């Protein structure tokens, strides 16, 4: 099962559209994750119409229209793994312990907010993934997104994709 992970798209404030390389991944993905800060409902509509399955949450920059359509936290059981998606996890210091306590029955946590790619594993085994942002790199060298696979109850092939500078 192929996964596509993104967050913090901030359309149309940070970019006019999602980058072409990211859009090209949609037909290849069995499940698309978006960890919040869509900003416009058109991006949600686009991903809903072009994804086999979409798992998304709202972020702190998402208004009432998106909050009416998306949860604050989403859960999905995929291929023997338990996923959770949330926008904010707090500061980097202590993140693994804090998230392991908040999501004790989760194998993989997808989150956003910082625009900083993150891939760590808590002592409990919880894998934490932040795909960064495909449209707003902030202080990062590149805009980014992630892909991964679920194979027989194992998360494999986690890859951070750097997008060309615009």
Using the CA coordinates, give the radius of gyration.
Answer: 14 Å
CATH top level label:
Alpha Beta
Number of helices: 4
Chain-averaged pLDDT: 96
The helix fraction, in percent, is 10-25%
According to CATH, the fold-level topology is: Purple Acid Phosphatase, chain A, domain 2
CATH superfamily: Metallo-dependent phosphatases
In one word, what is the shape?
Answer: globular
Q: Assign the CATH architecture.
A: 4-Layer Sandwich
- Give the spatial strand order of the biggest sheet: 3-2-1-9-10
Q: Helix and strand succession?
A: EHEHEHEEHEEEEE
- State the end-to-end distance: 31 Å
Extended strand count? 10
Structural domains: how many: 1
Largest sheet entry: 5 strands, mixed
Structural class assignment: alpha/beta
Low-pLDDT stretches are none
Instruction: Estimate what percentage of residues fall within beta strands.
Output: 25-35%
Protein name: Phosphoesterase
Family: Belongs to the metallophosphoesterase superfamily. YfcE family.
Pfam family, one: Metallophos_2
InterPro entries: Calcineurin-like_PHP_lpxH, Metallo-depent_PP-like, Phosphodiesterase_MJ0936/Vps29
Would you summarize the structure shown here?
Its cofactor is a divalent metal cation. By secondary structure, the protein is of the alpha/beta class. The protein is built from 4 helices and 10 strands.
